[in-house]
């Protein structure tokens, strides 16, 4: 909804400034549609997030900073009780 309002606002603004090409281009409609699909996507389940965090911690390519962040997020999930705490194999 906010993207639509911004588009109308800028359309009116461009028209008031007597701009030659005061219209909404198809590219902006495509950007709006893709952004809307991304924002309305299904949220990840805490169990899936915990599995991904455990995989990130176990991956040898992950930097120590990222690994520490993943540990903190995993601890937050576990202490809030959003997931069943299962020790990784």
Q: Could you tell me the strand content as a percent range?
A: under 5%
Determine the number of helices (DSSP H or I, runs of at least 4 residues): 4
Please give the domain count: 2
Estimated radius of gyration = 22 Å
Give a quick account of the main beta sheet: strands, pairing sense, barrel closure: none
Class by SSE composition: mainly alpha
Fraction in helix: 55-70%
Overall shape: elongated
| Total beta-strand segments | 0
Termini separation (Å)? Answer: 45 Å
Overall mean pLDDT stands at 77
Spans of at least 5 consecutive residues whose pLDDT stays below 50 are: none
SSE string, helices as H and strands as E: HHHH
Question: What can you tell me about this protein's structure?
Answer:
This protein has 89 residues and is an all-alpha fold. It has two domains: 2-39; 46-80. It has four helices and no strands. It has helices spanning 2-16, 26-39, 46-58, 64-80. Helix 3 packs antiparallel against helix 4. The N and C termini lie far apart (45 Å).
Question: What layout of secondary structure does this protein have?
Answer:
Blueprint: H1 2-16, H2 26-39, H3 46-58, H4 64-80
Helix pairs in contact: 3-4
TL;DR of this structure?
By secondary structure, the protein is mostly helical.
Features:
89 residues; mainly alpha; 2 domains; 4 helices; elongated
């Amino acid at each position: 909804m906010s993207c639509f309002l911004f588009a109308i606002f800028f359309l009116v603004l461009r028209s008031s400034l007597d701009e030659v090409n005061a219209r909404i281009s198809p590219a902006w409609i495509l950007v709006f549609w893709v952004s809307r699909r991304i924002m309305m996507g299904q949220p990840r389940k805490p169990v899936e997030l915990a599995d991904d965090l455990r995989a990130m911690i176990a991956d040898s390519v992950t930097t120590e900073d990222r690994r520490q962040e993943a540990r903190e997020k995993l601890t937050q999930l576990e202490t809030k009780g959003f997931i069943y705490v299962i020790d990784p194999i």
